[in-house]
Model the fold of this input.
Amino acid sequence: MAVTMAQALNTALHDAMAADDRVLVLGEDVGALGGVFRITDKLQERFGEKRCFDTPLAESGIVGSAIGMAMYGFKPVVEMQFDGFTYPAFEQIISHLAKMRNRSRGTVTLPVVIRIPYGGGIGAVEHHSESPEAFFAHIAGIKVVSPGTPADGYSLLRRSIETPDPVIFFEPKRRYWLKEEIDLPIETEPFGTAVIRRAGTTATLMAYGPMVRTCMEAAEAAEDEGWDLEVIDVRTLNPLDTPTLVESVQRTGRAIVVHEAQVFAGFGAELAARITERAFYHLEAPVLRVGGWDIPYPAAKLEEFFLPDVDRILDAVDRSLAF
Amino acid sequence: MAVTMAQALNTALHDAMAADDRVLVLGEDVGALGGVFRITDKLQERFGEKRCFDTPLAESGIVGSAIGMAMYGFKPVVEMQFDGFTYPAFEQIISHLAKMRNRSRGTVTLPVVIRIPYGGGIGAVEHHSESPEAFFAHIAGIKVVSPGTPADGYSLLRRSIETPDPVIFFEPKRRYWLKEEIDLPIETEPFGTAVIRRAGTTATLMAYGPMVRTCMEAAEAAEDEGWDLEVIDVRTLNPLDTPTLVESVQRTGRAIVVHEAQVFAGFGAELAARITERAFYHLEAPVLRVGGWDIPYPAAKLEEFFLPDVDRILDAVDRSLAF
Amino acid sequence: MDALVPDPASLLPPHPPVQLLDDHGELRESPDFPLDLKDEDFRALYRHMVIARRVDKQAIALQRQGQLGVYASLLGQEAAQVGAAYALAPQDWIFPSYREMGAALVRGVDPSAILHLFRGTWLSNHDPYESNFALLAIPIATQTLHATGYAMAAGLDGRDLVVLSCLGDGATSEGDAHEAFNFAAVFQAPCVFYVQNNQYAISVPLSKQTHAPTIAHKAVGYGMPGLRCDGNDVLASYAVTRQAVERARGGGGPSLIEAVTYRMEAHTTADDPTRYRTPEELAEWKARDPIARFETFMEGQGLLDDDMRAEIDEEAKAIGARMRSQITDAPHPDPMEMFEHVYVEPPGRYAEQREQLRAELDGSEEQ
Amino acid sequence: MDALVPDPASLLPPHPPVQLLDDHGELRESPDFPLDLKDEDFRALYRHMVIARRVDKQAIALQRQGQLGVYASLLGQEAAQVGAAYALAPQDWIFPSYREMGAALVRGVDPSAILHLFRGTWLSNHDPYESNFALLAIPIATQTLHATGYAMAAGLDGRDLVVLSCLGDGATSEGDAHEAFNFAAVFQAPCVFYVQNNQYAISVPLSKQTHAPTIAHKAVGYGMPGLRCDGNDVLASYAVTRQAVERARGGGGPSLIEAVTYRMEAHTTADDPTRYRTPEELAEWKARDPIARFETFMEGQGLLDDDMRAEIDEEAKAIGARMRSQITDAPHPDPMEMFEHVYVEPPGRYAEQREQLRAELDGSEEQ
Ligand SMILES: Cc1ncc(C[n+]2csc(CCOP(=O)(O)OP(=O)(O)O)c2C)c(N)n1
Ligand SMILES: Cc1ncc(C[n+]2csc(CCOP(=O)(O)OP(=O)(O)O)c2C)c(N)n1
Ligand SMILES: [Mg+2]
Ligand SMILES: [Mg+2]
Done:
């Protein structure tokens, strides 16, 4: 059946709560309202106020108390209402959620999942379209995940809830309504592996979350140019499946990494640097980076001029081929 | 005369306050105590409690109220007591300090400087040795600076206080006691430019803050190997002087970027990706990255095994030459 | 045993909330909160509320018609906003949240400027220094620290200036609100924290937000006076704010005011309130409509007749109509402006990126 | 007019602070805070305080001798820590700051395990689940949220378990403390917030930290009872904490306790207190030494004689000596352990980096 990313995520939460009663869902408006995107819809109705509940309006409080709940033995899945409202929780994430296991010499493990609807493209007001994944990729002790398809939305969220390590789970909010013909539950490729969504020979496009779909569209459009582009869905930023990325570039000789976040010091820099270190002699052109400009996310009427699209991606392929 | 980094910074604050009575210094323990590193020593005595004062223990409050003071017309220079305690202020920095001018279409300018003693090597307890510069380099709307010498400590801090844009000023705490023969006041190379600290031909080492000195030591040690290394002090991470970096690599054909922070998604990735994009055909080896391991900063007795040192840098030069 | 300073008793809010107009619009003056208002002030308060409601209605319509991406209505909070804003002197400042259209209008901010944020034309479109009205703040409670810092600065500078810091009931849960209250009290900054308790933070009711007796009781822990007023009573909202503002102006430090009101509309046009509140509750509050109540009072005082009402309605319509055309006729923003205001001194790469965008724009024109 | 819930009067802290032993060690029992202690309890309290002071002294000596990088002394706060920790049941938890050696000892944590953090051998070296004593927390106030979450979880789980959340006077200014107080109150979590007001946050005196009448008054704004005790009176610290703990255990929700005490040593061994406080002030508090006071009481009650004192001193010396050797004889930590505990499932690159480090270690051995 046709399942949207939103439905897949909601079902994943439902199934995880049904499978393990240590799983809790908490955050702002996740209860009666079911979350502003309805990803937690009906969970409180189904599992009660002790399993799914609203918290006061305080993100550091949400993550900090979730750490305590995890120490006790629960598996909290917390929702940050929007990307731009994750920042108040930054200290709890970096100083405790990520470090606790290491600090405690392995005695304290924190199976916490932080769900973050992220990215732009939905015409939202400011602070509602941020792509902060690079911050979290630079923090040791947490895993960073971003599904690009409904099937991965379900499967990667289930695995993220199961893994004993803390996970930052980035949900591409502009793809909440993206449909895929699947039956739930579904198990996709293993957690920590990248997937070749489209095999090709001209060059490799690499993306995660919202840009996977855009890269697939670019690859289709590229056919008119006679280009056969490979598209890789990175899926998990940390752990990162370097071998799959490198192997692809060794075949195609060219790579373009794509994300919505500003390019400067973005996660694309890590992908570019890493691939270059490992596929240097195979590269016919430098790994190119496509992303947002190095500016704050603009007002809604301008986001189409900020966000990477098919044209900007193909321009990069063009530049790559020109080397 | 021999001036330490700490003295240079303290004098810079003193001279800036004397030159412009809109300059305020605030933070935790910056008053009577003069800061835990004494960088604000005697400022309250000299300029009074209205120009230099202690705040309650709340970093978001310090940065958030400084934003209000800057809106009013002051030039607040705030101190974060340690790198690891900057995180509570992250939301105020990213959502307001960095974005305010853009959000207000240029009507509100925030000349705020946030001083952060950062980095390891002083045998401190946890949370006191972090290198978070990559987070801030990824934020549009702020400038990111890190001096590597006492002269730059003075000059770049003066310029940072003068520039109308917000600045995150990273002070390499392990170099507070580093001495240089200079007379204050001193004006060094322009803000926004990188400086070649040592000309060489074999390969280019690039660093900022605490690692500049380490790279100079590596370059000296390298002479025994018959290597003539160039060392570039990046000085300002944003704005970044790309031309100087690229020009150097075009001459040497090899580059190694060095920082204390973990390598994964660190600022070194940006330098490597950027240089490769612009000097692709000149590179005889991929730009290599030397830094801390991808783990939380370790306990004091292990930091020597975590931090990049002369040997780790020379190993990288070796690997670069082996390509 | 030495007495505590400040005396806790002096910080406790009045109970019940201060009300100067009872539910039937009868004036019940209070010696503690004397009214220093003339007839023209009463008319001005009425006028501001009517215009605010009209503008709000128009904004909702514009959103329904696809002219705005989203909008946060103030319906039901007109008295709370107008009363408080009216208590300020021209040199005073307001640091608003995103639901402060009423306060903005009192300060003379062009309503279309506010709507451009919701339309997505620009991130804001008014100069805060012209109206002493800061940018709308979306990240909850963050503006309270800017307000505190601005007030601290005015204090350091010896300026006669008071800051009104607006926040919601939910916002009081954020760490930033706590730090703002504490900084303002420690530095005795001329800052008045004005909490519009409209009973909800999106779907979360006050009972799940705090266990405090009232929001005003939070003031005690900072050593500042807590005040509480009927936020649907424009005179009480005015008089209570006035008292706090004058205390701050006189060097008496900050205060925390809780204006008890209700959000009659959805949280924003994107919200579905039927999921979390009942029609009965809504009806209860509808009966306490702030404008209707004040109208009864005005008529009773012979301050309002049909001509006057018609005149004000006309003006409100006109303002709403102008705002509508300013929005519907607004030019499409210039993409190149994205790079314009980020820095006074932009980094070198902006030049390259500008060129790249310029090329993209030319390219798409060709197609 | 309906009454406020909770009744604000029921939340206001007692004034002056609860004291059961006056400055001369005279017992002044209070009906509100009955003592449920037997002779062996009094002896245990005394013993814990003496050992804590000895261990603290030893730790400072170790730092001076270069065995520790830094150390945060509890000198003067023995009663506040021991009294509070002693009020807990075995299944209860403590979430400490970095100055909680006294509380750690009461919970049976090996003091050398705590010192390894300060020595820099490891970031911690005790299993929190063995002693129900969480890791020391250095980022101020962050632990209060972990304590709250742990208590919320116990509540959800229906466990008979109370959490003692320790923090300092300065910590009450952080947003995290506010959010922890609020969450605990909203969810009526079995959590007791225990603020050791030792008058300073490094160099910043309480008067610059808050304008509140007392720290205990902060409780009012969260709808939890505020309590205040003489933190240099071990019996008051015990009895007040005991009351709050039992209230929490009985489902009565959280409380906020302020233990008024003084930090007799420097903030840490790295600090120079002469820059911000006077010898007079220090002398004043020295006269209120918590152990001396309790000793007078014990002697008066015939609970302590020279043999017993000698015996306890011996034990304290022995514990201190053992701790010293555990530190001085500690092995150098294994560098490879850096990669050991970060993840349960580490990313692939850890293998490469381990190898690289291994090679570096081999290389340096060769030299
Ligand atoms: C830091 C942060 N977290 C979450 C949000 C999402 N959000 C927007 S409005 C709102 C509720 C605010 O409630 P309240 O403070 O009572 O103001 P009201 O909307 O009722 O006027 C929330 C949670 C936000 N804007 N900022
Ligand atoms: C978030 C954070 N900011 C700053 C610091 C630096 N710091 C360490 S202790 C301290 C003072 C704490 O004072 P208080 O809470 O009263 O505890 P005390 O040390 O007096 O026991 C400060 C500012 C820190 N550890 N964490
Ligand atoms: Mg509200
Ligand atoms: Mg203290």
